[in-house]
Amino acid sequence: MAESKNLLYIGGEWVTPSTTNTIDVISPFTEEVIATVPEAAEGDVDRAVEAAKAALDGPYPRLSPAERADVISKLSAAIGARAMEFAELITTEMGSPASFSLMGQVFSATMIYDGYANLARTYPFEEPRAGALGPVLVRKESVGVSAGIVPWNVPLFEIACKLAPALAAGSPIVLKPSPETPLDSYLLAEILDEIELPKGMVSFLPAGREVGEYLVRHPGIDKVTFTGSTAAGRKVAAICGEQLKRVTLELGGKSAAIILDDADLATHIPTLMPSALMNNGQACVAQTRILAPRGRYDEVVDAIAEAVRGTSVGDPSDPSVIVGPLVAERQRDRVLGYIEKGNAEGAKLAVGGGRPASQPKGWFVEPTLFVDVDNSMTIAQEEIFGPVLAVIPYDDESDAVRIANDSDFGLSGSVWTADVERGIDVARQVRTGTYGVNSIATIDIQQPFGGFKASGIGREFGPEGLSAFLETKTIVLPGDYQPPS
Q1: How far apart are alpha carbons 412 and 435 in whole angstroms?
Q2: Angle 230-243/209-217 helices, nearest 10 degrees?
Q3: Beta-strand runs (E) in 266-387
Q4: For 449, which of 33, 104, 126, 350 is 20 to 30 Å away at the CA?
Q5: How far apart are CA 380 and CA 289, in angstroms?
Q6: From the CB of residue 341, how many other CB atoms can be counted at a distance below 10 Å?
Q7: What is the pLDDT of residues 421-457, one digit of tens each?
Q8: Which residues are catalytic?
Q9: In sequence order, which residues have a C-beta less than 8 Å from that of residue 158 and are 6 or more positions away?
């Protein structure tokens, strides 16, 4: 049983919530309530935004970039010191397997903080340039008060995606954790207290969609960063467009892994599978469409089917388990509904397709493989967000690229080949924000990450991720200006 909470962390202080509403945090493995936390309401948003606006005029944004980098490094080290505590907590609250949690949930987050700390020390926040009529000074200044909407699948990681660049830029931020996974944000708030982050810079407001929309619409918010579904992202984008707010959207994906005809299946399939089924299939970059050449289709299907059948399912706290339960009952039912659509539309079920008999309790779905899938089918076009894979045949390399690009999404993808240069050529043709050549990594968290098409707007990580939290100011100087020596 995790520890229940009765306070909210607003502006760096533990405060009594504005209402008595609460959120039950339910274990997806036991289906039992493991903790209760306050549910933030509109009054709490108002208080958090006011604290952030005050912090914008406070000491932290006026620190030098190197001093802000030191704060971020201190935060990263403090998270690392409690890494197992974070990993176990996230496994408990959302079912992420222990085999994934430590690296995928925790150390991936500290790597983001470390990357932004290093970047802050070298980023050109102020740059002299030669203008048309004389010298100018181009400055990068904090975008203002930010709001971050955090999903449930990798909660600590997604907080880092938003908090790290905000701290590097000097932007106070109000973060809304998902109601399914609020517990890790409480542990992070304790750490922010430990490192003595100035008041007002960070607030955590666990709540549902209504409060999230109120936060996005709040007139005191200057920039919104949102990670979640494409449907919700469209609504966030509409609000921000109406109000001319800066916005970054990291949305859904339906990534295609292209297995070329020269691929070494014994090497490449075991490397691909963790990217296909990571975090119980609940990953926006999951490689869920596997494209196989017709001449080797049966061979590819047999290799993938063997790998899917061999995927261990069960208690997510067991280090040997690869696939645990989905985050919520509604998510399990949603995934089972997609499996039904796959069957109804004529795809052939090769492995799985239901609830595992070995798990009478918990929101489990068997690792599932469909074959003989046409790319027009629902299971090939819509993001399922569960352990469901589809193998799609293609005729030649150009046909594989066509199928990969035949999607509303464009977030990630991969190609598997004996010829890396050939793989790079394929990568150049597929319209996605990130792409891997024979690589288990679906993103590089120190380089720009984001999507084409319905997979989002803007980029996270690297200089591009930091620039999303900055405004650009040009200061025109006298023609005879000479900087002080």
Answers
A1: 5
A2: 30
A3: 289-293, 348-351, 368-371
A4: 126
A5: 7
A6: 15
A7: 999 999 999 999 999 999 988 899 999 999 999 999 9
A8: 250, 284
A9: 150, 151, 227
C-alpha 107/C-alpha 87 separation (Å) is 9
Rounded CA-CA distance 175/197 in Å is: 15
What letters, b where the CB count within 10 A reaches 16 and e where it falls short, cover 144-159?
Answer: bbbbbbbbbbbbbbbb
Q: What is the pLDDT of residues 147-202, one digit of tens each?
A: 999 999 999 999 999 999 999 999 999 999 999 999 999 999 999 999 999 999 99
Q: Counting beta carbons within 10 angstroms of the beta carbon of residue 128, is it exposed (0 to 12), middle (13 to 18) or buried (19 or more)?
A: middle
Candidates 343, 264, 273, 335; CA nearest to 306 is 273
Please give the mean pLDDT across all residues of the chain: 97
How far apart, in whole angstroms, are the C-alpha atoms of residue 380 and residue 324? 23
Cα 302 versus chain centre, distance:
32
CA–CA distance, 400 with 416 (Å, rounded to integer): 12
N-to-C CA span, the chain: 62
Name residue, tokens 């919520």: 328
**Which domains can be identified in the chain, with CATH numbers?**
8-251+455-474 (3.40.605.10), 256-437 (3.40.309.10)
Mapping DSSP onto H, E and C, the string for 259-293 reads: ECCCCCHHHHHHHHHHHHHHHHHCCCCCCCEEEEE
Closest-CA residue to 86 (of 1, 157, 26): 157
**Secondary structure element (H or E) that encloses residue 190, with its range:** helix 183-194
- CB atoms closer than 10 angstroms to residue 3: 12
Phi, psi of 339 (to 5 degrees): -65, -40
Closest CA to 479 of 231, 36, 73, 131: 131
Kindly state the tokens that stand for 72. Answer: 């971020």
Beta bridge partners of 175: 148, 204
The predicted-structure confidence for 52-75, as pLDDT tens digits, reads as follows 999 999 999 999 999 999 999 999
Residue 253 to residue 442: CA distance in whole angstroms: 12
**Beta-ladder partners of 391:** 290
Neighbours of 320 (CB within 10 A): 10
SS3 category, 387: coil
Separation between Cα atoms, residue 184 and residue 108, nearest integer Å: 15
| Dihedral angle over CA of 189, 194, 197, 199, nearest 10 | 70
Alpha carbon 357 to chain centroid, angstroms: 31
- Using an 8 Å Cβ cutoff, are 114 and 140 in contact? no
**Closest to 307 in 3D by CA, of 355, 268, 280:** 268
The one-letter amino acid code at 17 reads P
- For residue 464, give the H/E element and its range: helix 462-467
Question: For 218-264, where are the alpha helices, taking DSSP H only?
Answer: 230-243
From residue 264, give the alpha-carbon distance in Å to each of 259, 391, 399: 9, 17, 20
What is the 8-class DSSP label of residue 323?
Answer: B
